Amino acid sequence: MPNENTPLLYQYPEHLRHTLETLPARSGVYIFYGQDQTFPLYIGKSVNIRSRVLAHFRAVDEAKLLRMTCNIEYVETVGEIGALLLESKMIKDRRPLFNKRLRVTRKLCSLRVDDQTTGIVFSNELDFSTSEDLFGLFKTKFAAIEKLRDIADEQKLCYGALGLEKLSAKRACFRFSLGRCAGLCCGKETRVEHQTRLKMALEAMKVRSWPYPGRIAIEEKSGQQTEYHVLNNWFYLGTVSTLEAAKGVQTATPHFDRDSYKILCQHVFRHQGLNITLLD
After folding, report:
1. How far apart are CA 7 and CA 73, in angstroms?
2. Domain for residue 155, yes or no?
């Protein structure tokens, strides 16, 4: 008899076929529910909800999810931006069983690098949305250290200067004797040169400061429909149907949100022609 960890054999979910008739071929977020309609099993997003759900129905590796699902609901959005932001918010708020990504991370790490020092800072102690000289967003201190170590090996940076190991006074580090350190520890290069190489290696990971004085509303249109997505300090505050209503969205920003930051950087601010209104 199979135990509870045995993967279920895939069967087409005939018990869900009727739901396809109700799903729109439009942008939005969809929610898989089990017998408990208050606790979602899975939340996803797509520019075509019906097509994406149908892809789930054909996914052999999602047999367990499909077997447990009793109902599928959806929330339409005007476009992809709204779907991305709403999916991220709903997953954090409702914590569906099968979602592994976009779960809330209360404390993030980043590397803070200037001309003299390198350190690891935390989002619960420092406002990442306005701080300068931050590189990378990591879920754990260990991940930040491993990234710093990898770059140190590539760029022949000094482990001691980076805080990765202790240095003996007035002595070169062991890695210098192996040709793996360019010699900051023994005066072969200046600290500014050392830190400049580090920052150049990290440039692609530089964390952008929030580029506005306060809240903004991003307009998204599709045909005759319009939505305004309100954000502040990289945090998604909500979506409304008019600009006047957007001015009234005043929810406080509780913490720097890594996922909203990535959505805006990857899917919003790279596009030209977006209508962005300053609300403050």
Report:
1. 26
2. yes
